[in-house]
Specification:
Blueprint (H helix, E strand, L loop, with lengths): L22 H11 L3 E6 L2 E7 H7 L9 H10 L2 H4 L7 E2 L4 H11 L3 E6 L2 E7 H9 L25
Parallel strand pairs: 3-4
Antiparallel strand pairs: 1-2, 4-5
């Protein structure tokens, strides 16, 4: 079986932001581009990663007593640098997709930046791996006796 390199399935080019990008801009960018992760770059250097969950956590509660104008002002003050995760787990473009999947499982992450010679060249996500499997680029070998058993309970609730 042929080993598939990350470069063959990663998403590229990558949308990235600077550490000074405001929370509303981060939120809008993710929604407009239908993405869930944004690498944070300071020049050509990867300094952090922001997920859609990080943005949701930084958003104010709906139960606030602040006015719409006060909220907008305060959210504009929050930057990528304040909500990003600085301990970014990366992988090489030459690594195998299996290695990427293993690293994602170990670290409980759903995607990671792909770097080559210290430069950000792409991003690999669970969706990229699923897309490669469903397109037939990656063959999934079934082990003998690994057939999926019928669920022992009903998954839908009757109303």
């Amino acid at each position: 079986m042929r080993t598939i390199a990350i470069r063959d399935v990663m998403s590229s080019p990558v949308t990235a932001v600077s550490p000074t990008t405001s929370l509303p801009k981060l939120n809008a960018l993710m929604r407009e581009q239908h993405i869930r992760r944004l690498p944070v770059m300071s020049g050509n250097r990867l300094v952090g990663m922001i997920t859609f969950g990080d943005i949701r956590s930084a958003m104010p509660s709906d139960a606030t007593t602040l006015s719409v104008y006060e909220l907008a002002y305060l959210m504009e003050q929050v930057t990528a640098a304040e909500i990003m995760r600085g301990d970014v787990i990366t992988i090489s473009a030459d690594a195998s997709v299996a290695e990427a999947a293993q690293r994602m499982l170990e670290h409980k992450i759903s995607g990671m930046p792909v770097v080559e010679h210290g430069q950000l060249v792409g991003i690999i996500t669970e969706s990229d791996i699923f897309r490669a499997i469903s397109s037939g680029l990656i063959a999934v070998a079934e082990r003998p006796g690994s057939a999926v058993a019928a669920p022992s309970r009903q998954w839908r609730t009757r109303v």
